[in-house]
Write a structure and sequence with these properties.
Length: about 160
Protein backbone atom coordinates (compact mmCIF):
# COMPACT_ATOMS: atom_id res chain seq x y z
CA UNK A 1 0.00 0.00 0.00
CA UNK A 2 1.26 3.47 -0.82
CA UNK A 3 0.28 6.95 0.26
CA UNK A 4 -0.83 9.10 -2.66
CA UNK A 5 -2.84 12.27 -3.13
CA UNK A 6 -6.31 12.32 -4.59
CA UNK A 7 -7.63 15.08 -6.86
CA UNK A 8 -8.39 17.41 -3.94
CA UNK A 9 -4.84 17.08 -2.60
CA UNK A 10 -5.96 14.93 0.37
CA UNK A 11 -3.91 11.92 1.42
CA UNK A 12 -5.31 8.60 0.34
CA UNK A 13 -4.10 5.03 0.27
CA UNK A 14 -3.60 2.88 -2.82
CA UNK A 15 -3.91 -0.87 -2.48
CA UNK A 16 -1.84 -3.49 -4.30
CA UNK A 17 -3.86 -3.11 -7.48
CA UNK A 18 -3.42 0.68 -7.42
CA UNK A 19 -7.04 1.37 -6.48
CA UNK A 20 -7.35 4.55 -4.42
CA UNK A 21 -9.03 4.18 -1.04
CA UNK A 22 -9.83 7.01 1.36
CA UNK A 23 -8.07 6.95 4.71
CA UNK A 24 -10.34 7.25 7.73
CA UNK A 25 -8.88 10.15 9.72
CA UNK A 26 -11.40 9.95 12.56
CA UNK A 27 -9.75 10.93 15.83
CA UNK A 28 -6.39 11.77 14.24
CA UNK A 29 -6.79 15.55 14.33
CA UNK A 30 -7.67 17.74 17.35
CA UNK A 31 -11.37 18.61 17.58
CA UNK A 32 -11.41 21.95 19.39
CA UNK A 33 -7.93 22.66 20.77
CA UNK A 34 -4.57 23.45 19.27
CA UNK A 35 -2.73 20.90 21.39
CA UNK A 36 -0.53 18.48 19.52
CA UNK A 37 -1.47 15.19 21.18
CA UNK A 38 -4.94 15.76 22.70
CA UNK A 39 -8.22 15.19 20.88
CA UNK A 40 -10.39 17.73 22.71
CA UNK A 41 -10.64 20.07 25.69
CA UNK A 42 -14.31 19.24 26.28
CA UNK A 43 -15.16 15.90 24.68
CA UNK A 44 -14.29 13.10 27.14
CA UNK A 45 -13.40 10.48 24.52
CA UNK A 46 -12.72 10.31 20.78
CA UNK A 47 -14.95 8.16 18.54
CA UNK A 48 -14.57 4.34 18.74
CA UNK A 49 -12.81 4.73 22.12
CA UNK A 50 -13.08 2.55 25.21
CA UNK A 51 -12.52 5.60 27.42
CA UNK A 52 -15.37 6.68 29.71
CA UNK A 53 -17.36 9.05 27.51
CA UNK A 54 -19.43 10.51 30.38
CA UNK A 55 -16.92 12.60 32.31
CA UNK A 56 -14.02 14.76 31.13
CA UNK A 57 -10.76 14.76 33.11
CA UNK A 58 -8.73 17.96 32.58
CA UNK A 59 -5.57 16.25 33.85
CA UNK A 60 -5.90 13.48 31.26
CA UNK A 61 -7.45 14.76 28.02
CA UNK A 62 -8.31 12.11 25.42
CA UNK A 63 -5.35 11.32 23.16
CA UNK A 64 -5.30 11.54 19.38
CA UNK A 65 -5.24 8.31 17.43
CA UNK A 66 -1.98 7.37 15.72
CA UNK A 67 -1.86 8.87 12.24
CA UNK A 68 -1.92 6.48 9.30
CA UNK A 69 1.32 7.95 7.91
CA UNK A 70 3.11 7.15 11.18
CA UNK A 71 1.87 3.54 11.16
CA UNK A 72 2.59 2.98 7.49
CA UNK A 73 6.31 3.83 7.42
CA UNK A 74 7.95 1.31 5.07
CA UNK A 75 10.22 -1.24 6.73
CA UNK A 76 13.71 -1.79 5.32
CA UNK A 77 13.87 -4.63 2.81
CA UNK A 78 17.41 -4.42 1.45
CA UNK A 79 20.16 -6.40 3.18
CA UNK A 80 22.34 -3.32 3.66
CA UNK A 81 19.50 -1.39 5.30
CA UNK A 82 18.56 -4.24 7.64
CA UNK A 83 22.14 -4.98 8.67
CA UNK A 84 23.39 -1.38 8.86
CA UNK A 85 24.37 -1.80 12.54
CA UNK A 86 26.46 -4.91 11.82
CA UNK A 87 29.67 -5.79 10.02
CA UNK A 88 31.56 -8.98 9.20
CA UNK A 89 34.68 -9.22 11.37
CA UNK A 90 38.05 -10.72 10.36
CA UNK A 91 36.93 -14.23 11.41
CA UNK A 92 33.83 -14.00 9.19
CA UNK A 93 31.29 -13.54 11.99
CA UNK A 94 28.57 -10.93 12.01
CA UNK A 95 29.35 -8.36 14.72
CA UNK A 96 27.27 -5.49 16.06
CA UNK A 97 28.86 -2.05 15.73
CA UNK A 98 26.05 0.01 17.34
CA UNK A 99 26.92 0.91 20.94
CA UNK A 100 23.25 1.54 21.82
CA UNK A 101 22.28 -2.00 20.82
CA UNK A 102 25.26 -3.42 22.70
CA UNK A 103 24.34 -1.43 25.81
CA UNK A 104 20.68 -2.48 25.61
CA UNK A 105 21.67 -6.15 25.42
CA UNK A 106 24.38 -6.02 28.07
CA UNK A 107 22.27 -7.84 30.67
CA UNK A 108 21.27 -10.75 28.43
CA UNK A 109 24.08 -13.13 29.45
CA UNK A 110 23.55 -12.64 33.23
CA UNK A 111 19.79 -13.10 32.65
CA UNK A 112 20.38 -16.40 30.82
CA UNK A 113 22.83 -17.59 33.51
CA UNK A 114 20.28 -16.80 36.26
CA UNK A 115 17.53 -18.63 34.36
CA UNK A 116 19.88 -21.59 33.82
CA UNK A 117 20.75 -21.78 37.53
CA UNK A 118 17.10 -21.40 38.56
CA UNK A 119 15.97 -24.15 36.17
CA UNK A 120 18.73 -26.53 37.23
CA UNK A 121 17.94 -26.00 40.93
CA UNK A 122 14.21 -26.56 40.40
CA UNK A 123 14.82 -29.65 38.24
CA UNK A 124 13.45 -28.27 34.98
CA UNK A 125 16.65 -28.69 32.98
CA UNK A 126 18.21 -26.35 30.46
CA UNK A 127 15.69 -26.97 27.68
CA UNK A 128 13.01 -24.88 29.45
CA UNK A 129 15.05 -21.65 29.30
CA UNK A 130 13.37 -18.91 27.32
CA UNK A 131 15.47 -16.12 25.87
CA UNK A 132 14.40 -12.53 26.52
CA UNK A 133 12.53 -10.93 23.60
CA UNK A 134 14.74 -7.84 23.73
CA UNK A 135 17.79 -9.58 22.21
CA UNK A 136 18.60 -7.37 19.21
CA UNK A 137 14.91 -6.42 19.06
CA UNK A 138 14.40 -2.69 19.64
CA UNK A 139 10.71 -2.84 18.68
CA UNK A 140 7.94 -2.40 21.20
CA UNK A 141 5.16 -4.96 21.62
CA UNK A 142 2.81 -2.73 19.60
CA UNK A 143 5.30 -2.53 16.73
CA UNK A 144 5.71 -6.34 16.70
CA UNK A 145 1.91 -6.83 16.65
CA UNK A 146 1.50 -4.29 13.84
CA UNK A 147 4.26 -5.99 11.84
CA UNK A 148 2.45 -9.31 12.20
CA UNK A 149 -0.85 -7.78 11.06
CA UNK A 150 0.52 -5.65 8.23
CA UNK A 151 0.07 -8.37 5.60
CA UNK A 152 -3.54 -9.20 6.55
CA UNK A 153 -5.12 -7.00 3.81
CA UNK A 154 -2.91 -8.62 1.18
CA UNK A 155 -3.91 -12.15 2.23
CA UNK A 156 -7.62 -11.23 2.54
CA UNK A 157 -7.62 -9.80 -0.98
CA UNK A 158 -6.00 -12.94 -2.40
CA UNK A 159 -8.35 -15.21 -0.44
CA UNK A 160 -11.51 -13.50 -1.69
Amino acid sequence: AEIAQDFAGESCQTDILGEIKDIDRTGQDPEDIAEELAYSSSIPAPPYSFLDSKKYDKKAPPPLYIRFEDLNIPKPVEKDEILQSFFVNERGYLECSDEKIKEANKGVIPFILKELAKNLLTGKGIVAISLPVRIFQPKSLLERILDACSFVPIFFKKAC
